[in-house]
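Batch manifest, entry 17 of 40.
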Amino acid sequence: MSEAIRLSRRLIELTGCSRREAELYIEGGWVTVDGEVVDVPQFKVADQRVELLPGAVAEPLAPITLLLNLPAGARTDPEALRELLRPETRWAEDPSGQRLLRGHFARLTAELPLQRGASGLAIFTQDWRTQRKLKADAGKLEQEYLVEVSGQPMPDGLERLRRGHVHKGRTLPPCKASWQSESRLRLPLKNPAPGLVEALCASIGLRVEALKRLRVGGVPMGKLPVGQWRYLGPGERF
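Output type: structure tokens
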């Protein structure tokens, strides 16, 4: 039996590539060990069959964006998010076609925070262009919330919300509110300030029981199950 060595070293021996090229091939998911993709250059191999896949390119990983259906009441500290953003919690029906690689979980930043206490669509990205878009256009991007409410609404409550009004000295912006059911209100809002959803609901006699973000700009959460994530698809745009 051969002595175990780093996968990157074995690849150098097989192909004559440089150390940096070997690391890029491996991190890019272009190297298999006994037929299984291994994307860790430090992985130790002995007599296993190591192959470089056809079409391999020695380039840094393209930055990606992940969409998570954050559970209600979930912690949002880095350690808790690492538990939610794992290979095992990827949605089995993710339509993006993106290959899953370990490098996709590094250097992620959270963008456009949810309203306080809200669940639903959370965004994490490595892509500086996505970061810039979400920051620069935050005031233009519509965020759609599904609001569980209780109480008896005013008869003209929706009309008040749609035209905007003043409540307890606070000017509330107009929004295209609609009922999804007797206790669920849909509120599309542009860059909602903290507490705005509660204020809008209170202004028409309702109390917020739960909040879920369904969409940011042109990107909906869709059928993504609670506690699972998917990749932002190549054709999706915020």
